[in-house]
From TrEMBL:
Keyword Signal: yes
Single GO MF descriptor: hydrolase activity, acting on ester bonds
Keywords (A to Z) from UniProt: Signal
Lineage, highest ranks first: Bacteria, Pseudomonadati, Pseudomonadota, Betaproteobacteria, Burkholderiales
Protein name: SGNH/GDSL hydrolase family protein
Signal sequence annotation: 1-23
Amino acid sequence: MSFVRKFAAVAAGAFLAVGCAQALENTVAPDMTAPLAKAPKVALLVGNSYSFYNCGVHTYLRGFMQNGTPKETMKTRLLTISSGSLSFHDMRHYLAPHEQDPYAEVKNGKLAHPMFDVVLLQENSAGATSKKRIPFFEKYAIEQADIIREAGSTPLLVMTWAKKNKPDDIVRIADTTIRIANKAKMRVVPVGLAFAEAIKSKPELEMYMPDKSHPSAAGSYLYGAVLYATLFHRTPADINYFGECEKPLAPDTAAFLRDVAWKTVSEFNGWN
């Protein structure tokens, strides 16, 4: 093969590689992409209405865990505040033992072991786009990540999605979230990128409630699938589960969203 042909082949290969790497909407790369060292057994999800719509994303996550192979038995607690930001949440209080708390084993007035293996943080929907809010998003994400690690747990940062009427915001949401997570030494759960991929591939599928912001049943299902893929380093593609809250999805829709979840998580983290 001539030098010119060799160069063209190499250049084409490089272009394809770069194109694949840039398929998702983020331009900032995550620093922490390794899977969790082991499957978590107890998780805390901290957020707001984005996480509690449609009976709560923890319910969808539980559905994937119960119907997957192997079956996962992770306990999950959801703590949300309507319209809340991370600054609303008292993380030290959440991670401390309380009377009658089934997750707390107390000996001599102290926890015998951390209450949660992982803690997932979900910021207000405007946290990554508002100039006024971004500094507070960064401040509390870093502060709470440190508190979580001090308690013996692993923090993860949930990336939210763009509103239906502002799809281009996903680049800013993604890059801001990743930048803050990198600074706070956290893994990112790329839910927003999965939303964008689903909408690009199937724009007729309604991912939003009428307010153009909160997730539809399909949106909450995708959110749960991304959590499952991230926490267990396992594709949800073959899981025979269609949703919760008396809102089961059509099998083909559920299959599409499960594929999007794994494609997004694996590509984002370089697990391919």
